[in-house]
Amino acid sequence: AAAALLMSEQIREQVEVFVEQLRQTAAIVVDFNSDQQDALLQRINGLAQTLQTIDQLKTSVEDVDVPQELLECIDQGHHPDAYTRESLQRVVYKRETAHQKREIFKVQSPHRKATGCCRLFSPS
């Protein structure tokens, strides 16, 4: 688990590097003149190398399942932390509900024993 976490962190870092390289490349393209051709080619080669690195790293995290709901959340422009927060809220709600049901069962349990309610077998 620790190794997968480290690899996913490396992928995240490489994606950040790629985004920065892409930003710098776009700045050159916007103001492009023939004197910048070598700099542009270097940037493009850097982009290709970073993509190759990301491609090599991806095999270490291919078995990671990403919930469809998380992808939909991101597609809608929401931060992934919003999905995490909502998931945790659902878990807490379900846990509290289950706890309340157990408490109700504990309160009703002596009554069931006294009335014979819900017995699986009738007394012989």
Question: Could you characterize what this model shows?
Answer:
This protein has 124 residues and is mainly α. The chain has helices at 2-30, 37-58, 68-75, 80-115. α3 (68-75) packs across α4. The longest helix has 36 residues, at 80-115. It is elongated, with a radius of gyration of 28 Å. The two termini are 56 Å apart.
Low-confidence segments, ≥5 residues, pLDDT <50? Answer: none
Portion of residues within helices: over 70%
For the record, give the distance between the C-alpha atoms at the N and C termini, rounded to a whole number.
56 Å
Mind describing the biggest β-sheet? none
Tally of helical segments: 4
- Overall 3D shape: elongated
Structural class category: mainly alpha
Q: Provide the residue-averaged pLDDT.
A: 83
Strand segment count: 0
Radius of gyration: 28 Å
Tell me the series of helices and strands, N- to C-terminal.
HHHH
Topology:
Layout: H1 2-30, H2 37-58, H3 68-75, H4 80-115
Short précis:
This protein has 124 residues and is mainly alpha-helical. It has helices spanning 2-30, 37-58, 68-75, 80-115. Helix 1 (2-30) runs antiparallel to helix 2 and helix 3 packs across helix 4.
Features:
single chain, 124 residues, mainly alpha, 4 helices, elongated
